[in-house]
Amino acid sequence: MTKNALVIGANGGIGNEVLRQLVQDEHYETVFSVARSALVGNHANNSKVQHKSMDTADEGEVKSYVDELRSAGKKLDLVICTTGILHQKGEGETPLKPEKRLEDMNSAQLAEYFRINSILPAIWLQHLVKVVAKEKAAIVFLSARVGSITDNSLGGWYGYRASKAALNMLLKTASIEYKRRAANTSLMCYHPGTVDTGLSKPFQANVKPEKLFTPEFTVSQLLSITAELDAEESPFYLDWQGHTIPW
Ligand SMILES: NC(=O)c1ccc[n+]([C@@H]2O[C@H](COP(=O)([O-])OP(=O)(O)OC[C@H]3O[C@@H](n4cnc5c(N)ncnc54)[C@H](OP(=O)(O)O)[C@@H]3O)[C@@H](O)[C@H]2O)c1
């Protein structure tokens, strides 16, 4: 029981469940978590959890956080980044609604998709290379099948698709450098299926009940798939069944 994990975006529907399952996993001694606010859920007070409220999209805050881990001699065996946006209309937020047609695109919306779905992961990839465990580690980003350029036959959702495709490209590019600097690290983009969380709520009407997964299901798939990754074959773009998605 000596492993350390980090969950980025620990208050999301999927992120909070990742945290819950890792806390229950006896292989993990410490589960670090970061989110924009105090941690929610019963496991928030578990002694294995070390939570920090911070802006997970802020370059300076991410650097300081990872530098603190490094100064404390911490090494991460597993990192799961569960942040991502599809729609929003909250106070102080850039309004987001997935585009149905060319006329729906606007630069503020596109910039916000890229800021959270692509640039936030890039910043973490940049810094995490300093703190991954040398012997074996995995860094997972929640992506989506709609980020596959090859698989795009439906169109629409310009900003979300493009920002997830950019995430995939950033991870694939980083994987080449990780092979030199942290060779035993597996990098993965994960498609969780359609999961019953706030993110998918407005789009669940046409999803068959058996195709709408619980966070419990997709996270247990994610953790068992991650445990089997071989860094020699990194990077990965896998779905909830462990099947490869074309980039
Ligand atoms: N649900 C699905 O059906 C589905 C399908 C395909 C892919 N995904 C992907 O899975 C991931 C998790 O989604 P979810 O279903 O758990 O959604 P969710 O419940 O809406 O959670 C949203 C996550 O994004 C973070 N976030 C939102 N706005 C942010 C901002 N301005 N700055 C920093 N972080 C922000 C939240 O961070 P805090 O913890 O700090 O609040 C939280 O971790 C996303 O990347 C999503 O694209 C989901």
Report on this structure.
The chain is α/β, with parallel strands linked by helices and 247 residues long. The chain has one domain (3-239): Rossmann fold. It contains five helices and nine strands, in the order βαββαβαβαβββαβ. The protein has helices spanning 13-24, 59-71, 107-128, 158-181, 215-227; strands at residues 3-8, 28-35, 49-53, 78-81, 137-142, 185-191, 194-195, 212-213, 236-239. Helix 1 packs across helix 5 (215-227). The termini are far apart. Bound molecules: NADP nicotinamide-adenine-dinucleotide phosphate (NAP). Residues 9-15, 35-36, 56-57, 82-85, 116, 142, 144, 191-192, 194-195, 197-200 line the site of NADP nicotinamide-adenine-dinucleotide phosphate. NADP nicotinamide-adenine-dinucleotide phosphate binds next to helix 1 and strand 7.
CATH top level? Alpha Beta
Number of helices, where a helix is a run of at least 4 consecutive DSSP H or I residues: 5
The CATH architecture comes to: 3-Layer(aba) Sandwich
User: What is the arithmetic mean of pLDDT?
Assistant: 97
| Straight-line distance between termini | 35 Å
Beta-strand level of the residues, as a percent range?
15-25%
Q: Helices and strands: which structural class?
A: alpha/beta
Q: In one word, what is the shape?
A: globular
Provide the low-confidence segments as ranges. Answer: none
In total, how many beta strands?
A: 9
CATH superfamily: NAD(P)-binding Rossmann-like Domain
Largest sheet composition: 7 strands, parallel
Bound molecules: NADP nicotinamide-adenine-dinucleotide phosphate
